[in-house]
Specification:
This protein is mainly α. 98% of the residues lie in helices and 0% in strands. The chain has one helix and no strands. The termini are far apart. Residues 80-104 are annotated as: Disordered.
Length: 104
C-alpha cells in the first residue's frame, strides 16, 4: 500500500513537473512574442516619426521652391518689360536717325 502511494505520489510529481515545464515554455514564448511586438511597435513609431519629419521637410522645400518660382517669374517679367522698353527706345532712335539723315 505504501509503495502504491509512493508510486502515485511520484507520478503526480512527474505530471506536475511536466505541467510546470510546459507552463514555463509557454511563458517564455509569450515573453518573446511580447518583446517582438514591442520591437515592431518601436520600429513603427520611429518610422512614423521619420516619415512625418520627411514630409515636413518636403513641404518646406516645396514652399521654398514656390517662392523661388514666384521671384523668378517676377524677375523674368521685369526683364521682359525692360527689353521691350529697350527695343522701343532703339526703334525710336533709329527713326530719329533716319529723320536726321533725310534732313541732311
Amino acid at each position: 500500500v505504501l509503495i502504491q502511494e509512493l508510486d502515485l505520489e511520484k507520478e503526480k510529481r512527474w505530471k506536475a513537473e511536466q505541467a510546470e515545464k510546459k507552463l514555463s515554455e509557454s511563458i517564455k514564448q509569450l515573453q518573446n512574442q511580447a518583446k517582438e511586438e514591442k520591437d515592431i511597435q518601436s520600429v513603427a513609431v520611429y518610422t512614423t516619426d521619420r516619415l512625418r519629419e520627411l514630409i515636413l521637410k518636403e513641404r518646406n522645400a516645396k514652399t521654398r521652391l514656390q517662392i523661388d518660382i514666384r521671384q523668378l517669374k517676377e524677375e523674368a517679367e521685369k526683364l521682359s518689360k525692360e527689353l521691350e522698353r529697350s527695343k522701343q527706345k532703339e526703334e525710336d532712335q533709329q527713326k530719329a536717325l533716319q529723320t536726321l539723315e533725310e534732313a541732311l
